[in-house]
Design goal:
alpha+beta; six-stranded mixed β-sheet; globular; CNF1/YfiH-like putative cysteine hydrolases
Length: 243
């Protein structure tokens, strides 16, 4: 499926996933955003990843991330992964939150980030990028960011508590929140909040790619916590260095 946002919905063995055609000439990374019903086993089989180590997180809606230069020997807790090691596949799971995959043009680093409203409040994406830039001496202008499917602002309501924190932490908070029809509720734009952070860190506009689909509005493609809270299933977003 091709569209005006320049992403493709592709299929392998009746399982679909999203990629960006403009990045097909970059063969130094493997990446994708899955739809429903994928497993780690399906990832390995469909993308020929048997020689990759699969790294995942116990996600806790925090501002904790992990930069590692050797395969971790324990389960990692937090909401973002960064590595410089080839043949490591970073994975995160989402069902309304925003998945962000980052890599640099010279294939020295990859990162996977999980962001919800708690991550927006903490400006988590900015913190992860700052770590990449400072620790690895990489220019932000060489970084690419791939923003996957997430809940849209019309479907994502937050309360006064979130609004009060955003007022303190964000100069441009009014750009992220729209008053809802429900009293004391506001519609939060996850995608916009994280795009702002990327641009503030020095990402070029042309290096920011988006899949502007709402997880709640597209039940055939995505799981959604807001649509069905009792469902614990998640989509998988993944990225790794090939060599």
């Amino acid at each position: 499926m091709k569209n005006k946002f320049s992403y493709f919905l592709e299929e392998k063995e009746k399982l679909s996933f999203f990629t960006f055609p403009k990045l097909r000439n970059i063969d130094s990374i493997v990446y994708g955003f899955t739809t429903k019903n994928w497993t780690k086993k399906a990832l390995i089989e469909n993308f020929n990843l048997k020689n990759f180590s699969i790294i995942s997180l116990k996600q806790i809606h925090s501002d904790k991330f992990h930069l590692f230069k050797e395969v971790p020997g324990e389960i990692l807790v937090g909401d973002a992964l960064i590595t410089t090691i080839p043949k490591i596949l970073l994975t995160i799971k989402t069902a309304d939150c925003l998945p962000i995959l980052i890599f640099d043009k010279e294939a020295k680093v990859v990162s996977a980030i999980h962001v919800g409203w708690k991550g927006v409040i903490r400006k988590f994406t900015k913190k992860v990028v700052l770590e990449i830039v400072d620790s690895l001496d990489i220019k932000p202008s060489l970084l690419f960011a791939l923003l996957g499917p997430c809940i849209c602002s019309k479907c994502y309501e937050v309360g006064e508590d979130v609004k009060e924190i955003l007022e303190k932490e964000w100069d441009s908070f009014s750009d992220l929140l729209i008053p809802s029809r429900k009293e004391g509720k506001y519609q939060l734009d996850l995608r916009k909040a994280n795009t702002i952070q990327l641009k503030e860190m020095g990402f070029k506009q042309e290096n920011i790619f988006n899949i502007k689909l709402c997880t709640k509005c597209n039940p055939k493609l995505f799981f959604s916590h807001r649509r069905k809270p009792i469902n614990k299933d998640r989509m998988i977003s993944f990225i790794g260095l090939e060599k």
